[in-house]
Amino acid sequence: MVKDLAIKECEEAMEDPLKLLAIFAHPDDEALGAGSTIAKYAAEGIQVYLVCATRGERGWTGDEKENPGMTELGKTREGELLCAAEVLGIKQVYFLDYVDGDLDKAKPIEAMNSIITIIREVRPQVAVSFGPDGVYGHPDHIAISQFATGACMLAADQTYKDAKDLPAHRISKFYYFANSKTVIQNYMSVFGEIQMDIDGIIRSAIGWDDWMYTTTIDGSAYWKTALKAVNCHKSQVAIYGDLNKLSEERSAAVWGTRTYYRVFSLVNGGRQRETDLFEGLRGASWAKGGIHVRSGNNARQGP
Asked: Considering the entire predicted model, what is its pTM?
């Protein structure tokens, strides 16, 4: 009986289109962090979905006298994210409606419930979020990592009911965004040292040793798409100068290869370095579609 059920689940999984769900904290996390990875999989026809916990309302980078305020800046950054999503080929964007900078103060079960509903609605085979280091210790990044991890567990629990009472869904592979030391070095060569003072302690990006991450995604063929998506976030990247004037070699190094840590997998394992987030899941058919946006319980068509 158990064997028959496993076979049935496997057959149903093979009929589903391949889907990737990225779960991040702010507008620009998707482009600055995983842009080439997202572009690569979207170009292959894999359906990519994005959860963004906030609208980056506190991310003003210009003269403070010209700060439009949290509401207006949030609208601006939402528009920038939708621009980037279209460039990268993201099928649908979900906003969780938390406030930038306050995510680690959210009630964990409420945040997880929102993500659980999305997981069960989208039904992805693969999900990715920040790691426990939050790249450079950003509290919002760490919080969404914890919420995403818990949501992936609970979404598979048939006894756990979400807001829409959707059927349980078991994600096959879950990853943390794990920047290698090389990725961090290439990144800081353009953006400089990235630091935050949290509770009187300076946090900064360190980078994962080569033995620590499990997966390398070669997005070098998609670095131009990633850079185009980064350019959508004008309110954030303008202070770094013209990123488009870097040499092609340097740009490919900054925006191309990305590294990940495989938190769990139901289809593969071991020490051998992966080069595909969907390793062990290939063979299913997939389809393409347009971008949609969801905010809370309301959905609207994106640009």
From this structure: 0.89
